[in-house]
From TrEMBL, chain A:
Residues annotated as signal peptide: none
Protein known as: ATP synthase subunit a
Source taxon at top rank: Bacteria
Segments passing through the bilayer: 29-48, 84-108, 114-134, 143-166, 197-217, 223-241
Keywords assigned by UniProt, alphabetized: ATP synthesis, Cell membrane, CF(0), Hydrogen ion transport, Ion transport, Membrane, Transmembrane, Transmembrane helix, Transport
Family under the similarity heading: Belongs to the ATPase A chain family.
Keyword Glycosyltransferase: no
Keyword Cytoplasm attributed: no
Function comment: Key component of the proton channel; it plays a direct role in the translocation of protons across the membrane.
TrEMBL record, chain B:
Organism encoding this protein: Shinella lacus
Coiled-coil positions: 106-177
Location in or out of the cell: Cell inner membrane; Cell membrane
Protein known as: ATP synthase subunit b
Chain segments annotated as transmembrane: 69-88
Length: 250, 217
């Protein structure tokens, strides 16, 4: 490990694969995507293996995450939105597990790559658009025309609505990406201060206590951010899905 | 130690540089072209065959995008399948079983409560009839006993009355006899006293008349 705070985001090839001149190598990013799926699925699968009527502690965790997302989706998109439950649950668990795995030292953070968060955000918006048109046809476009707006203001309001809709995948992806990236860089910089200060001798060792405490505090904060960003991603997904389910209803 | 220190000190500079290069070089072609040889990253452990680790800010390195997208599609697609086909039905069925079980137990509990209430009502009914019956039995028994006792007492009183009457007649007889005997004893005593006093025998007739006159007073 070097002290370069951006080194942790480097994507390294593990198994080089090239198809049609495009690089599809299995990288450390791919490895941690696989790890995320394995850890999340393994946890949810094995903790519910007992199928206990009275749940064990770990089974409770799985059940809580299930009920947490279910109630979030029901509140956000109503009972009609429940057909998206597997999607929102997968998104939440994937993002949460990827964020938390990224907190382990030397582990790669899948969600610190803009392309990954952008792809997930596009998947959400794509689902909203496709389902909206499939279910409501052109009625889906009522989403951009709020009811009760005077005719003169309508072009302005509609253009604002369209712009805000188009900016959703960007804000959704940047929020998660930037939070994970900034958190990991900050951690790395403060941890770097500890090693560089303590190399300066006795005074430096004493001086390095401060950044060390900061690093410890930031680690706690980053765990919170990991959960919070997964939660925010899932909540916003529920809100956007609500538009697909009830386009006229806001 | 000094090498580590040097590289550590260069850290803030590197961040700035990486950020600038990310901002200015949007396309990978640009990034590659503008990359001076001997960038700071060469000192890191990037050596194992990563030709794009060239100073462009890693999350914006577009040469990795295709691979990341492909593997994200594979892994997330697999994850979605696993969740929707295995995990969610599994947790869902656990929760549903528990929900059903709780509802069933509540039904059972309310049924048992109704049964218990009915049993209490029946018990109280039985208790009331038993008490009434008990009272009836007790009062008839008391009446019977009283009647029997009265009859017995009347009988005993009658026989006692009879015995008292018999005893009284006997007492009267004995008294009369005793009184008769008192006269004879008085005469004898008188005769004996007179003889002692005057030395002469009084006749029987005289003594008897004297006793009679004394008793007559």
């Amino acid at each position: 490990m070097s002290n370069d705070p951006t080194h942790q985001f480097l994507v390294n090839k593990i198994v080089p694969i090239e198809i049609g001149g495009i690089d599809f190598s299995f990288t450390n990013a791919s490895l941690f995507m696989v790890a995320t799926v394995a850890v999340a699925t393994g946890f949810l699968y094995f903790t519910t293996g007992q199928r206990g009527l009275v749940p064990s502690r770990m089974q409770s965790v799985s059940e809580m995450s299930y009920e947490f997302i279910a109630s979030m989706l029901r509140e956000g998109a109503g009972s009609h939105g429940m057909k998206f439950f597997p999607f929102v649950f997968s998104l939440f668990m994937f993002v949460l597990t990827a964020n938390l795995l990224g907190m382990m030292p030397y582990f790669f953070t899948v969600t610190s790559q803009i392309i990954v968060t952008f792809a997930l955000a596009l998947l959400v918006i794509g689902t909203v658009v496709v389902y909206g048109f499939y279910k409501h046809g052109f009625g889906f476009l009522k989403l951009f025309v709020p009811s009760g707006v005077p005719g003169a203001l309508l072009p302005l309001v509609v253009s604002i609505e369209v712009i805000s809709f188009l900016s959703r995948p960007i804000s959704l992806s940047i929020r998660l990406f930037a939070n994970m990236l900034a958190g990991h860089i900050t951690l790395k910089v403060f941890a770097g201060f500890v090693t560089s200060l303590s190399a300066l001798g006795a005074v430096g060792v004493v001086g390095s206590i401060l950044p060390l405490l900061m690093t410890v505090a930031l680690t706690g904060l980053e765990f919170l951010v990991s959960f919070l960003q997964a939660y925010v991603f899932a909540v916003l997904t529920c809100m956007y899905l609500n538009d697909a389910v009830h386009p006229g209803g806001h | 130690m000094s090498v580590t220190l040097a590289s550590a000190e260069s850290t803030p500079f590197e961040i700035a540089q990486a950020a600038t290069s990310a901002e200015t070089h949007e396309t990978p072609a640009d990034a590659h072209a503008a990359q001076p040889a001997g960038e700071t990253h060469t000192e890191t452990g990037v050596a194992h065959g990563d030709e794009h680790a060239t100073g462009v800010f890693p999350p914006f390195d577009q040469t990795t995008f295709a691979s990341q997208l492909l593997w994200l599609a594979i892994t997330f697609g697999l994850f979605y399948l696993l969740m929707s086909k295995v995990v969610i039905p599994r947790i869902g069925s656990i929760l549903e079983t528990r929900h059903d079980r709780i509802a069933q137990d509540l039904d059972e509990a309310s049924r048992l409560k109704a049964e218990a209430d009915a049993a209490i009502a029946a018990y109280e009914q039985d208790l009331a009839t038993a008490r009434a019956k008990g009272n009836a039995i007790a009062s008839t028994a008391r009446d019977e006993a009283k009647a029997k006792a009265d009859a017995e007492r009347a009988k005993i009183e009658a026989s006692l009355q009879e015995k008292i009457a018999g005893a009284e007649t006997r007492i009267a007889e004995i008294k009369a006899k005793a009184l008769a005997d008192v006269g004879a004893i008085a005469e004898e005593t008188t005769a004996a006293v007179v003889e002692q006093l005057i030395g002469a025998k009084a006749t029987k007739a005289e003594v008897a008349s004297a006793v009679k006159s004394a008793a007559g007073e």
